[in-house]
Design brief:
By secondary structure, this protein is of the alpha/beta class. It contains 13 helices and 18 strands. The chain has a ten-stranded mixed beta sheet, sandwiched between helices. A six-stranded parallel beta sheet has the order 4-3-2-5-6-7, with helices on both faces. Helix 1 links the parallel strand 2 and strand 3.
Length: about 525
């Protein structure tokens, strides 16, 4: 496919200014993977870009006894590991803002000591009593940490000049019942406006851009419906396997890991109605409404709507790769899905009859996340003998990663006397146009917590609807008393695009998966 020159003109910049707010951020689980790989590097990047308030500090909390100086050395190591220059003067300044508190999260004495520490650091960094708690702990501790914070008087009451915000990582519950139970436990101590359920896909630039793209341009919205759109494909393909997370993944599977959250959130952004304003609750009202319009999967013929697969031995970048069941920590008889493809119908006026095909999988040939809007073909070809079938329909691709951007595929004439047409791609790539890579998703989301903006966080109602949608599959796929399980688990070789049954799912409708 020929390439046109990318868009290079940026005109008329309009920004919504947000001033960084002072705060103290308390990370529970500060020695864990998430803190080291994502949270601390994102905070440092915000610091370097002067996006944090001057009145800011971090307290890392974990079990290991450490003093501030040893914690700072660990933070330095984590930042260096993430590719930052450990000798940069800004790194030293940032490390000065990092403190540490060790203790047991179920011990009230730890929270009592934390109260004193926060008061001290609030005074030292002049942050006021504005506290952002990040729960990067195992999920079974979420409710008890909230309870201990409350007992220690660390949760600001409604109307106070102080604020408390609590970020909850996924998995948020294990199924609908446990997710609702978690919400009930948290709500004993926290209001909904204090709970930030994070889905890091919502912090990715291209995912945020869906809203600007759809609602800040006049050309797309009039054709964003069943009259012009044939179908939509949402793909999250990963080359990695289960890695060191077998313990978690054996319990979760791809449906809980990717569909209940990232996939359905992206679908809701693409398909929701225009919100009245760019306000957290107006946007989240529309997302929840859209999720409620999704047709429940019929338990009686689930296989026609959703396919699941598990990678077997194969190749990764041309090198032999083990199958899922041979991975360390995985049950050699495991029937957990590492791939899933689903056909989703949205029963409302805008989308009636337009299928949304969703697929996510591990050990696929390329790392790519994209949302492709496939438009209908032209109704008639005036270029006889070229037929309407010969003219490839337009596709608008929102590239979420790794090459963030937007690309529109159109038909165009080749130069010369012969009438030849082919697909051209009009590309906009973030890196080329803005001359920088988009920031890490966590940076944006952490800033939003500090600003108190919940737009990109999952509200309780959306979270429940998403669980309710995938519940029939979870139920059907649950092993019975003798180990039998409904829904065939299809094998696919590592390094392939998933099981043949996933191709059949879409081919039954006369369509094909894109090969990104
Ligand atoms: C996480 C899942 O939420 O998202 C992982 O738990 C998955 O299994 C990851 O690998 C994918 O995120 P990203 O940003 O690398 O596409």
């Amino acid at each position: 496919m020929a390439q046109l020159k990318p868009f290079t003109q940026i005109r008329g910049e309009f920004c919504i200014e947000v001033r960084p707010q002072p705060c103290g951020m308390i990370i529970f689980g500060a020695s864990g993977d998430l803190a080291n790989r994502k949270l601390l590097p994102s905070l440092y990047s915000l610091y370097r870009r002067k996006l944090l308030s001057k009145n800011f500090y971090v307290i890392g909390c974990a079990r290991t006894p450490l003093d501030d100086l040893s914690f700072r050395e660990k933070v330095r190591g984590a930042l260096a590991e993430s590719g930052q220059d450990a000798s940069a003067p800004q790194m030293g300044e940032f490390l000065e803002l990092c403190h540490y508190a060790s203790g047991n999260y179920s011990d009230p004495a730890f929270f009592k000591a934390l109260t004193g520490r926060l008061a001290e650091l609030d005074a030292q960094h002049k942050t006021g009593c504005l506290h952002l708690y990040y729960l990067a702990t195992p999920p079974n501790l979420y409710a008890s940490v909230a309870e201990c914070l409350s007992q220690a008087g660390l949760i600001a009451p409604e109307g106070a000049t102080c604020w408390t915000r609590v970020v909850i990582e996924k998995p948020y519950g294990w199924d609908l019942e446990s997710a609702m139970a978690l919400s009930r436990s948290l709500h004993r101590f926290l209001r909904e406006d204090q709970i930030y359920r994070i889905d890091h896909y919502l912090g990715k630039e291209t995912v945020q851009n869906i809203l600007m793209f759809r609602f800040a341009n006049a050309v797309f919205e009039p054709i964003w419906n069943r009259r012009y759109i044939d179908h939509v494909q949402i793909t999250v393909a990963e080359t990695v396997g289960v890695e060191h997370r077998a313990g978690y993944f054996e319990q979760a599977g791809i449906l809980r890991d990717m569909f209940q959250n990232h996939m359905l959130q992206m679908l809701s952004m693409v398909a929701m109605e225009p919100p009245a304003s760019f306000d957290a609750d107006r946007v989240r009202d529309e997302k929840a409404k859209l999720l409620r319009s999704i047709r429940p999967f019929p338990p009686e013929n689930l296989d026609q709507w959703i396919v699941r697969g598990q990678y077997g031995p194969g190749l990764r970048d041309g090198v032999p790769a083990a199958g899922y069941r041979e991975e360390p920590g995985v049950d050699p008889q495991s029937r957990v899905e590492t791939y899933s493809a689903a056909k989703v119908m949205v029963d409302n006026w805008r989308w009636q009859g337009v299928p949304f095909y969703l697929r996510a999988g591990k050990r696929l040939p390329r790392r790519v996340s994209e949302i492709a809007i496939a438009f209908k073909s032209v109704p008639h070809s005036m270029f006889s003998p070229i037929s309407t079938e010969d003219l490839a329909a337009n596709v608008l691709v929102l590239n979420v990663q790794p090459e963030e951007g937007v690309c529109l595929q159109v038909q165009a004439k080749h130069p010369g006397p012969r009438l030849c047409m082919s697909s051209l791609s009009m590309d906009f790539r973030y890196r080329e146009v803005f001359d920088e890579d988009p920031p890490e998703a966590y940076e944006r989301l952490l800033l939003d917590c500090m600003h108190g903006d919940q737009t990109l966080f999952v509200r309780e109602d959306s979270m429940e609807v998403s669980w309710a949608l995938i519940a029939p599959m979870l139920e059907a796929w649950k092993a019975g008393p003798t180990g039998e399980q409904a829904g065939k688990l299809h094998d696919y070789p590592a390094g392939s695009w998933g099981p043949a049954a996933a191709d059949e799912l879409i081919q039954r409708d006369g369509r094909q998966w894109r090969k990104p």
